[in-house]
Amino acid sequence: MSRPRKPVEQHLRDGTYRPGRHSGGSLPVEIPAMPPDLSPTAQGAWNTITQGLEQAGLVSNVDGAALRLLCESWETYLEAGDDVRRNGILTPFTNKSGATNKVVNPAMRVRNDAWKQIYSMLRQFGLTPSSRNGLSVTERTDDGDSLADILGFPIN
Fold first, then answer.
1. Predicted TM-score of the model (pTM)
2. Buried-most residue among 12, 46, 61, 116 (CB within 10 A)?
3. Alpha carbon distance 106, 144 (integer Å)
4. Nearest-5° angle of CA 102, CA 76, CA 92?
């Protein structure tokens, strides 16, 4: 894995800022329209995540597809987790010869794959502790709930 990029502010402090390399057009902070076909679970995730991203100045209208992937992966993760809780990590499997063995619940793989997708998308939006360090955040001047209040846990 490559080293994360330094924020522009760090380059300015270090004296390594080069306009041709480090300046990029910033997009206006705007929540994209929620896709109408999202499930209720994915809609809840969309509302929570976009509200937090808007408060932090980290969302733009062009982020809709990435947000959809994050919310749908979250729903998949929850559904697979429910299956694992209902049926256990190991489930009985009867092979061709009629013998029954315990095998890993296939929902475990679905859940783990969804978690990898979620984690990747969370990092893209700066929603993990380590990824927040490398983001350039647009200052917001409006009053309102903090990102910590919206997400329901402290952010340092």
1. 0.70
2. 46
3. 43
4. 10
- The burial class, CB within 10 Å (0-12 / 13-18 / 19+), for 24 is exposed
Residue 24 neighbours by CB under 8 Å, 6+ apart: none
Q: pLDDT of 104-136, one tens digit each?
A: 999 999 999 999 999 999 988 888 887 776 655
Candidates 47, 21, 25; CA nearest to 35 is 47
- How many Cβ atoms are within 10 Å of 70's Cβ, its own excluded? 22
Tell me the one-letter amino acid at 33.
Answer: A
Q: How many CA atoms lie within 13 A of 5 on its CB side?
A: 11
Tokens of 151: 């997400």
The tokens of 44 are what? 């809840």
- Burial (0-12, 13-18, 19+ Cβ within 10 Å), 89: exposed
- Using a 10 angstrom Cβ sphere, with 0-12 exposed, 13-18 middle and 19 or more buried, the burial of residue 55 is buried
The CA-atom distances, in angstroms, between 73 and each of 22, 117, 152 are 32, 7, 20
Give the separation between CA 103 and CA 92, rounded to whole angstroms: 6
24 pLDDT higher than 80 = no
